[in-house]
Amino acid sequence: EAGVAQSPRYKIIEKRQSVAFWCNPISGHATLYWYQQILGQGPKLLIQFQNNGVVDDSQLPKDRFSAERLKGVDSTLKIQPAKLEDSAVYLCASSHNAGGQDTQYFGPGTRLTVL
Amino acid sequence: DAKTTQPNSMESNEEEPVHLPCNHSTISGTDYIHWYRQLPSQGPEYVIHGLTSNVNNRMASLAIAEDRKSSTLILHRATLRDAAVYYCIPYYSNYQLIWGAGTKLIIKP
After folding, report:
1. C-alpha–C-alpha distance, residues A104 and A98, integer Å
2. How far apart are CA B22 and CA B35, in angstroms?
3. Which of B44, B95, B102 is opposite residue A106, by nearest beta carbon?
4. Which residues of A touch B91 (CB under 8 A)?
5. Cβ contact, residue pair B43, A55, below 8 Å
6. CA-CA distance, A25 to A28, in Å (whole number)?
7. Which chain B residues are Cβ-neighbours of A91 within 8 angstroms?
8. What is the DSSP letter of B89?
9. Which residues of A touch B99 (CB under 8 A)?
10. Contact flag B95-A56 (C-beta cutoff 8 Å)
11. Which of B32, B45, B100 has its CB closest to that of A100?
12. Residue B23 burial (CB < 10 Å; 0-12/13-18/19+)?
């Protein structure tokens, strides 16, 4: 079974530039998550999709971050414009559903450096 | 906000058992307790989860206190490959997913 795919693996940009990350979840998984992980901290959930609808985006900085999951499969996360504090690893995860027994499977992450 | 408390770090000798504690005093009766671990430069991976009774799988055991306000992840024989950050995450029924800083487990050969 193929795992969660993410691209790119690394990205370096200047502040105020835009950047986009892509995630392909495990086939058949209805729930998709985007996390931000700053060095030395645990992952912080940015947004959770159930199929192509948003379940939770309470911690997404909506003035600069946006995410979409068209057709309930792939997803993109965009930052526009980027700030220095956005430097982090962006993790995508998927699960079969959003129930308390569902296991999340994580991709390798995208390491973003904002200069 | 719901919160978990874990030690920042723990050390153990190779091939000895390790008990990783977690306090989750605000958990409700229907919230599962999940444990994940994150090896260096990798995404987190699932370890185990449970609701009320103790759980075992090939990776670990999970002991849940009777009042469900705490749990302990047990690695029966730690190896160097178990060195990672271990996260305890109550999976709240309102879909909140809050990860703490986790416990960094150091295994000494």
Report:
1. 9
2. 10
3. B44
4. 100
5. no
6. 8
7. 43-44
8. E
9. 35, 42-45
10. yes
11. B32
12. middle
Tens digit of each residue's pLDDT (9 = 90 or more) over A75-115:
999 999 999 999 999 999 999 987 778 899 999 999 999 99
Give the mean pLDDT of B38-45.
94
- Decide if pLDDT at B26 tops 90: no
Residues of A in contact with B86 (CB under 8 A): none
Q: For residue A9, how many C-alpha atoms fall within 13 Å in the half-sphere facing its CB? A: 5
Q: How many CA atoms, within 13 angstroms, populate the side-chain half-sphere of residue B56?
A: 1
B44 with A107: Cβ contact below 8 A: no
Task: Verify whether the Cβ–Cβ distance B93 to A106 is below 8 Å.
Answer: no
Please list the alpha-helical segments (H only) found in chain A.
none
pLDDT digits (tens, 9 = 90+) for A43-76: 999 999 999 899 889 999 999 999 999 888 999 9
Phi-psi region of A72 (alpha: psi -120 to 50; beta: other; left: phi over 0): left
Q: Are B45 and A106 in contact (CB under 8 A)?
A: yes
From the list B36, B41, B55, B47, the residue with the least C-alpha distance to B97 is: B36
Minimal C-alpha gap between A68 and chain B (Å): 19
Residue A49 identity (one-letter amino acid): F
